Structure prediction request, 176 residues.
Amino acid sequence: MSANDDKPSNKKVGYKRPPEHTQFKPGQSGNPRGRPKKASDEGTHPMDKALAKKVRMPDGTSRSKQDILCEAMANDAIKGDVVARRLVSQRINQRHLQKTALAAAKSNQHNVENRGGVMLVPGIMDIDEWQRQALAQQEELTRLCEEDHAKTAEANREIQNPGLPKAKSPDNEDKK
Prediction:
C-alpha cells in the first residue's frame, strides 16, 4: 500500500466544502426521482370522477360520460325540452361571460380608472394641451368600453331569452 491510499485528499473540508466522496459525480442529479407531482384539487368529487370515466361506444371509440350527457342534453334542448334548453342556455351564457372576462383582463380596456400608459408627443406641448389630449383619449376609451358592455348585455339577453324581439334603443327612436 502506498502512503497516498491511507491519507484523505489534501483539499480542505468545511463550510460549503463537503468531502469528495459525498459530492455528486458529474452528470448525477441530486434528486434523481424528481419533484413529486402535486395532488390536484379538481376532480376529487365522486361525481367528477364518475363523469370522467370512459365508456366504449358501439363504433369502437371511447368517450367520457360527461361528453355523452352533454350531447344528450343538447339534443333534448333542440327537440324542445324546456328544462334542457334552460340549462344549455345558462351554460352558453356562463361560457360567454368567462370568455368576455378573460378578454377584458387580457386587454385591460375595462379598467379605465387604473389604466396607465404613455402618450407620445411629436413636439413640445404645453400642459393644458397635453391634458386636453389625455382627457380626449380617456373619453374615447370610456366610450369604447361602454359600447362593449352594451353589446355584451345584448348578447346575454339574446342567450337568456332566445326569440324575443330586440330592445329598442333611444338612438333608433330619435331617427324616426
About this structure: The mean pLDDT is 76. The two ends are 112 Å apart (CA to CA). Residues 23 and 149 are 62 Å apart (CA to CA). Helices lie at 3-6, 46-52, 65-79, 82-107, 127-160, 170-175.
